[in-house]
Amino acid sequence: MDTQPAEPLREEVQRGKYLDELELGVRYRHAPGRTITEADDVLFTTATMNPQALHLDAAWCATQPFGRPVVNSMFTLATVVGLSVGHLTQGTTVANLGFEHVRFPAPMFHGDTLYAQTVVLETRASASRPGQGIARLEHTGRNQDGVITVVAVRSALMWYRQAHEGRAGGGNAGGERS
Questions:
Q1: C-alpha 144: how far from its chain's center?
Q2: Which residues, at least 6 apart from 46, have a Cβ–Cβ distance to it below 8 Å?
Q3: Global pTM?
Q4: What is the DSSP annotation of 7-57?
Q5: Which residue, 27, 57, 89, 120, is the most exposed by fewest CB within 10 angstroms?
Q6: How far from 23 is each of 26, 36, 69, 78, 123, CA to CA, in Å?
Q7: pLDDT tens track for 28-80
Q8: Cα distance between residue 29 and residue 146, in whole Å
């Protein structure tokens, strides 16, 4: 049986949401989660030149309050933001502008799984960059037990859909050229 469509297939490229597609009052849950391994933590810690024994010395950590190595909090933050990219900002963001109110209420440990969600706090047009605007996003990370491990508010410069799609090749969110 021939299953070929009569007309050419419409093509859709995976991307995040444009500024004008983000909705206030929505909790965006990002999937899948990410299980953090000891190798992840050691690689990130050493790649960023962080000699903190809390991430690298299991014997010493056994004498400390948590009794075992803790995951580098910067890796936890970066992973929570990374988990949101495919859902919210892939190919639709211009630049990360900064973070505020970053906190780590509980540690992550090797073998924990990190889950992320994002709430859009506000969006506004840029006064100096036509076709672009700023989104304030609150990212929250939880471990497999639902314990909050990181909360951060991030500001991102993002495209409005019409402005980005109007640019040559602008609507192609990092995928193949059409």
A1: 18
A2: 56
A3: 0.88
A4: SPPP--------GGG--BT-EEEEEEEEEPPHHHHHHHHHHTT---HHHH-
A5: 27
A6: 6, 30, 38, 23, 9
A7: 999 999 999 999 999 999 999 999 999 999 999 999 999 999 999 999 999 99
A8: 13
